[in-house]
Design goal:
This protein is an alpha/beta fold. The protein is built from 10 helices and 8 strands. It has an 8-stranded parallel barrel. Helix 6 packs parallel to helix 8. The chain is globular. 2-phosphoglycolic acid (PGA) binds next to strand 8.
Length: 234
């Protein structure tokens, strides 16, 4: 079954989220949908056709950590999945691989499945470093996990130069990276993320190595999301 994770990022007011949920309820799909809304709306989530995810988690458990949200708190909100290591957090919050590793361990201790984002910058691809970058991120983020835990991590390959830009890599580029990932992580689901939409899905769906998608911009447009899913599942 395809996995399609919806990363709302820092979007939607409370009223907009209510309307959005009503539209999402109507979406027909055979894929596993995972909605990752703002923390603020986790407790308003009421859809039965979709799983709930968060966009981030604290490296710490509950305690004196102002502004943090712990894995324990997420679990109480029925969160089953959590994005970690998104490139926006790596860039704007200076999140490091060591912290991402801590977050993944916290999530596993509350039976929450991590969706680990990895991917190279444009300059890194220009220098031919993409495989090296992705493997380093994966190795560091999964350090000291059990083999069973390692196998459960959902890996999202998101080339940073593709996110929100409308540019997608060629099929050969995606396949090459996914093969590299699967050599090291043969059991893991690998998603593609970065400007995936209802138009380029015709091309992307031909890549049999892709186990699903992480959608940012498209996640906010339920009608276009429906077209995306119909094409994906045809
Ligand atoms: P995008 O974002 O689909 O808007 O490119 C993907 C992501 O950042 O997860």
């Amino acid at each position: 079954m395809m996995i399609v994770a919806l990363n709302n990022k820092c979007n939607l007011t409370k009223k907009e989220f209510r309307e959005y949920q009503i539209k999402l309820q109507e979406v027909k799909t055979t894929s596993k949908l995972i909605l990752c809304p703002s923390f603020l709306y986790l407790d308003q989530f009421n859809l039965t056709n979709i799983k709930l995810g968060a966009q981030n988690v604290s490296t710490t458990d509950c305690g004196a950590y102002t502004g943090e949200v712990s894995a324990k708190q997420l679990k109480e909100e029925n969160v089953d999945y959590c994005i970690v290591g998104h490139s926006e957090r790596r860039e704007y919050q200076q999140e490091k691989n060591e912290e991402i590793n801590e977050k993944i361990k916290r999530l596993f201790s509350y039976q929450i499945t991590p969706i680990l984002c990895v991917g190279e910058k444009r300059s890194e691809r220009e220098e031919g470093l993409e495989k090296q970058v992705v493997l380093k991120e994966l190795t560091m983020a999964t350090k000291d996990l059990t083999e069973e835990e390692k196998g459960k991590v959902i890996i999202a390959y998101e080339p940073i130069w593709s996110i929100g830009t409308g540019l997608i890599p060629t099929a050969e580029q995606i396949i090459e990276i996914i093969h590299t990932i699967k050599e090291m992580f043969p059991q893991n689901k690998v998603l593609y993320g970065g400007s995936a939409n209802e138009e380029n899905i015709d091309t992307l769906k031909e890549i049999s190595e892709i186990d699903g998608y992480l959608l940012g911009g498209l996640s906010l447009k339920p009608e276009k999301l429906q077209i995306f899913l119909e094409k994906l599942e045809k």
